[in-house]
């Protein structure tokens, strides 16, 4: 048909209706949608047609098709309506890169196109993914100005946005002002408190939810359990588990997987295995969660055995499964096995290695002291190494005292993440090991001049459904005097058993006695002293630490577990350490 024909400029309404009907009933995949789109063009519907464009974009977004396709259609539509614009915002908000959703809204505003009640929930979803609370507050103000704030679905979106941005109190303020609260609102505010280190409030709200007559669902349970897992709040998680069984949600696969993750991340690997064994249905997530859980808890060989069992069951491992497998090899020092699994991942399962897999391989070589080989491996990688990989090499150089490579890795990190304080600390520690104190001071002066702040290490323990946090030399706790008296008692008892403080870890130019005092006040030791004071003999102690455990604390906690007859589980930045009877599950390899 000629391009200038009137029928192409204004196709018969029946053709448009027919194509829209095809979209509604047959567009079950991206391929079919493209076929219908091509059919519409062949039958004279121009790409500028707003009705056809509206439906095409709606179904593209519903099918999670690339937003570039949707944008190509949108850019040709004459006078797209608010519905179509909202669909575009929704599509970007649900994509991997939600930022264009905000730009889309800005252009609407500049074009004097008034948003409607559906615009804000999609926008707030994008803000939540971007964790940009300032933009969220601005959208909150605009929704109030336009009189939409009282609508339940906008209130729910506001609660979710504030919770996702880590502002649990603001989430609760919106929630508290809601006249009607549905399950979505309850789930969002509970999740907000739980994920932001406020498990007491999360539990209180969970109880209030029941008192309000609102039945929790699987999402409620998954939210609570996932939060408990991140916090290491085992006692709270176990209470949720009891409730899950009581209401029969333990048959829910997602809830079971969340329970599995809870116990694995809290270092209770025995309970994790029990949950796994009782699951009637298991998916790849279930197997992967336990494989990763075993690996980070120091049971690398068991993780590899479980992977073999997974293969025998006919389950196809995912790329995340292989991260767990390679992690297990790395933390057990199994170099040859690690390279074999890396090869199998590519050749047998067709998984293209991602930066996380290459990171595991660099870590595998680094941990076993093969620092030069790790550097050569990085040089041959087909992917551009990121900051994590260079930081792994820098950490290995610090442990194995390779100054030349350490300085090279630090130069790379300066270009990638110049404001990351941990890299300055690692290089400073490397210089200190060599007793190059003038270079240590240079590094620290550079940190000050560049405005780089070092965030202190902290350790958390759970007692009575409350999480207690301690930092090095912390004297802010109400029981501070008793805690420090217990620390002195611990040190005395350990020295009677032959403990000698590992002062090489205190990498500053000070006297030996002062170094010993500094080591005594590390946050994990303070946390353990607190738990020894407040728990009955024989009670396991669980500590969550934000940094890698130092050599001295590792030696001391092994002895504490024996002298005080306690099982002590420490979750540090990269793995678990199970201390019992003077031994650690990592076999002194971490």
Task: Give keywords.
disordered N terminus; 31 helices; six-stranded mixed beta sheet; single chain; 5% strand; mainly alpha; 590 residues
List the helices and strands and how they pair.
Layout: H1 6-9, H2 13-26, H3 30-42, H4 50-62, H5 67-74, H6 82-93, H7 99-110, H8 119-130, H9 133-145, H10 152-164, H11 168-177, H12 183-195, H13 199-211, H14 218-231, H15 234-247, H16 253-265, H17 269-278, H18 284-296, H19 300-312, H20 319-332, H21 335-347, H22 355-367, H23 371-380, H24 387-399, H25 403-416, H26 421-433, H27 437-449, E1 458-463, E2 466-471, H28 480-496, H29 512-520, H30 523-534, E3 541-545, H31 551-563, E4 568-571, E5 576-580, E6 583-584
Q: Could you please describe the fold and organization of this structure?
A:
Helix content is 65%, strand content 5%. It has 590 residues and is mainly alpha-helical. The chain has a 6-stranded mixed sheet with strand order 2-1-3-4-5-6, covered by helices on one side. β5 (576-580) and β6 (583-584) form a beta hairpin. α22 packs parallel to α24 (387-399). The radius of gyration is 28 Å and the shape is globular.
Short description:
The protein has 590 residues and is mostly helical.
Question: How far do the termini sit from each other?
Answer: 72 Å
Tally of extended strands?
Answer: 6
Low-pLDDT runs: 1-9, 507-517
Indicate the overall shape. Answer: globular
């Amino acid at each position: 048909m000629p391009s200038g024909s009137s029928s192409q400029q204004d196709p018969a309404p029946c053709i448009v209706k027919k194509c829209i009907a095809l979209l509604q009933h047959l567009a079950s995949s991206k391929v079919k949608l493209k076929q219908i789109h091509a059919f519409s063009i062949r039958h004279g519907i121009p790409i500028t047609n707003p009705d056809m464009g509206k439906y095409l974009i709606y179904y593209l977004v519903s099918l999670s098709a690339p937003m570039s396709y949707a944008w190509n259609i949108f850019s040709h539509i004459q006078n797209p309506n608010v519905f179509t614009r909202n669909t575009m915002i929704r599509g970007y908000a649900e994509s991997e890169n939600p930022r264009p959703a905000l730009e889309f809204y800005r252009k609407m505003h500049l074009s004097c196109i008034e948003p409607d009640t559906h615009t804000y929930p999609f926008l707030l979803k994008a803000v939540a993914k971007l964790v940009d609370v300032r933009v969220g507050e601005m959208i909150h103000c605009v929704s109030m100005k336009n009189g939409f704030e009282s609508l339940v679905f906008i209130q729910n979106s506001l609660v979710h946005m504030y919770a996702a941005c880590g502002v649990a109190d603001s989430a609760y303020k919106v929630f508290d002002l809601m006249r009607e609260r549905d399950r979505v609102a309850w789930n969002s505010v509970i999740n907000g408190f739980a994920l932001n280190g406020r498990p007491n409030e999360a539990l209180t709200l969970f109880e209030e939810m029941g008192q309000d007559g609102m039945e929790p669902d699987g999402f409620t349970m998954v939210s609570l359990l996932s939060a408990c897992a991140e916090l290491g709040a085992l006692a709270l998680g176990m209470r949720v588990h009891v409730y899950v069984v009581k209401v029969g949600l333990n048959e829910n696969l997602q809830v079971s997987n969340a329970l599995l993750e809870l116990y694995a991340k809290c270092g209770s690997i025995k309970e994790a295995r029990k949950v796994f064994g009782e699951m009637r249905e298991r998916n790849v997530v279930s197997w992967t969660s336990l494989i990763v859980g075993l690996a980070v808890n120091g049971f690398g060989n068991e993780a590899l055995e479980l992977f073999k069992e997974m293969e025998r069951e006919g389950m196809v491992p995912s790329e995340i499964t292989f991260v767990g497998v390679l992690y297990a090899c790395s933390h057990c020092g199994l170099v040859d096995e690690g390279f074999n699994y890396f090869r199998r991942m590519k050749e047998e399962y067709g998984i293209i290695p991602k930066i996380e897999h290459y990171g595991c391989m660099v870590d595998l070589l680094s941990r076993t002291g093969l620092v030069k080989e790790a550097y050569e491996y990085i040089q041959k990688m087909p992917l551009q190494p990121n900051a994590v990989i260079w930081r792994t090499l820098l950490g290995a150089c610090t442990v194995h005292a390779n100054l030349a490579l350490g300085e090279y890795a630090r130069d790379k990190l300066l270009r990638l993440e110049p404001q990351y304080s941990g890299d300055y600390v690692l290089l400073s520690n490397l210089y200190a090991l060599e007793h190059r104190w003038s270079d240590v001071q240079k590094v620290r002066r550079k940190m000050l001049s560049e405005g780089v702040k070092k965030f202190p290490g902290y350790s958390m323990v759970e007692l009575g459904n409350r999480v207690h946090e301690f930092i090095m030399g912390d004297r802010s706790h109400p029981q501070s005097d008793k805690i420090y008296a217990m620390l002195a008692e611990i040190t005395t008892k350990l020295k009677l058993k032959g403990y000698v403080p590992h002062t090489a870890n205190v990498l500053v130019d000070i006297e030996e006695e002062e170094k010993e005092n500094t080591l005594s006040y590390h946050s994990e030791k303070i946390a353990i002293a607190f738990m020894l004071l407040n728990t009955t003999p024989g009670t396991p102690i669980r500590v969550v630490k934000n940094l890698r455990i130092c050599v001295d604390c590792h030696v001391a906690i092994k002895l504490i577990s024996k002298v005080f007859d306690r099982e002590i589980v420490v979750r540090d930045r990269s793995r678990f350490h199970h201390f019992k009877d003077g031994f650690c599950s990592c076999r002194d390899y971490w």
